[in-house]
Design goal:
It is built from ten helices and twelve strands. Helix 1 (7-18) runs antiparallel to helix 2. By secondary structure, it is α/β, with parallel strands linked by helices. It has helices spanning 7-18, 22-34, 43-66, 93-100, 144-151, 166-178, 215-225, 242-252, 281-288, 292-295, and strands spanning 82-86, 118-124, 127-133, 155-161, 182-186, 198-207, 231-233, 255-260, 268-276, 298-302, 310-312, 322-327. It has three domains: 7-66, no CATH class; 82-252, 3-Layer(aba) Sandwich (Rossmann fold); 255-327, Roll (Ubiquitin-like (UB roll)), CATH 3.10.20.30. Strands 1, 2, 3, 4, 5, 6 and 7 form a seven-stranded mixed beta sheet that branches. Strands 9-8-12-10-11 form a five-stranded mixed beta sheet.
Length: 328
């Protein structure tokens, strides 16, 4: 059943988004709650607002006792890399996180369901990548801490709704982000930075490519952006292209997996070390143990571009899947 929200709801919602203090937000949410008609179609929305009010009251109480508290937008980095899902309202970011990880964000058909970042771990190959769902990007409401989170990520996943003007959504996102000195960067041009802005590697994710009937929309969208911007059409609802998504995120992070082989033993193939592409034997040694780098003499390598067990020096560049036995 649709929510059929009255105009008063959206006016109250605007006041909430403009609130600066926790007390103002609580008061605004309580007014917002009172504008929602009571019927089956609004049950989830009303429950969501009650949870927000309770959470804000808990935060306010904790702040009084502790004097300070850590921002909800501070997400501790985990795994082989951090990729942030960002986009306009109702593009399906939360559904995508739920489909790819064990996280259970709030998913609903009304806008601005996500109010604070929600992390989840996505398995790909034999490592884990951290995905972070974020509040919707909107000019009407700006959480400055959100842009700090995006700025410090390894990869931006710009999520758009393929069914409603995706090119306009990309343009809107780019404008909002560039206004905060974050420049979504085509992956093929990654590495260009200046002292004023952060140029963030970006993959455009075109959600709601549910079946073959939506492929023409996906093709037209990709053609509009051109070769410079990588676009991946997928569907969080049907699971279409989610495996491709995992591999594209892995490639976009620019990392390699390297496996350790203790002398005289079999390689440890379950828990690889993760290095940036271009990482050397010296970089790997430092990852294994901080003392190993100083003691490192050479290494034996099994993998790409070498003979099995070939002896190499400290500056040898490692490839994805290499097995390394350090010689100290």
């Amino acid at each position: 059943m649709p929510a059929n929200l009255p105009p008063e709801y959206f006016e109250a919602d605007k006041r909430y988004r403009e609130a600066k203090t926790t007390e103002e937000k609580i008061s605004s949410l309580e007014i917002l709650y009172g504008t929602i008609p009571k019927h089956k179609g609004t049950d989830k929305l009303r429950a969501d607002i009650r949870r927000r009010i309770a959470r804000l009251k808990d935060e306010a109480q904790a702040h009084k006792h502790a004097g300070r508290h850590e921002s909800a937008f501070h997400i501790e980095r985990e795994g082989a890399g951090q990729a942030v899902l960002a986009g306009p309202p109702n593009t399906g970011k939360s559904s995508l996180l739920a489909a790819l990880t064990h996280a259970r964000p709030e998913v609903a058909d009304y806008p601005f369901t996500t109010w604070t970042p929600v992390p989840g771990m996505m398995p790909v190959h034999d490592i884990q990548v951290q995905l972070v769902d974020t509040p919707a990007l909107s000019r009407e409401h700006v959480e400055h801490a959100l842009f700090d989170l995006i700025r410090n990520a390894d990869l931006l996943l710009a999520v758009v709704d393929l069914s409603r003007s995706p090119s306009e959504q990309v343009q809107e996102m780019s404008g909002i982000l560039s206004g905060h000195r974050i420049i979504p960067l085509p992956l093929k041009a990654a590495g260009t930075e200046d002292i004023h802005s952060v140029y963030l590697p970006t993959l455009v994710v075109a959600n709601k490519n549910d079946d073959a009937t939506t492929d023409p929309n996906a093709q037209a969208f990709s053609a509009t952006l051109g070769d410079a911007w990588p676009v991946l059409p997928l569907s969080a609802a049907t699971g279409r292209n989610l495996d491709r998504f995992r591999l594209r995120v892995y490639d976009a992070l620019g990392i390699v997996r390297v496996y350790s082989k203790p002398p005289g033993k079999k390689p440890e193939m379950e828990s690889p070390f993760v290095l940036k592409k271009g990482g050397t034997v010296s970089d790997f040694a430092a990852k294994v143990h901080h003392d190993f780098l100083e003691k490192l003499h050479s290494a034996r390598i099994w993998g790409s571009g070498v003979r099995d067990g070939q002896l190499v020096g400290r500056d040898h560049v490692l490839c994805d899947g290499d097995v390394v036995e350090l010689k100290l």
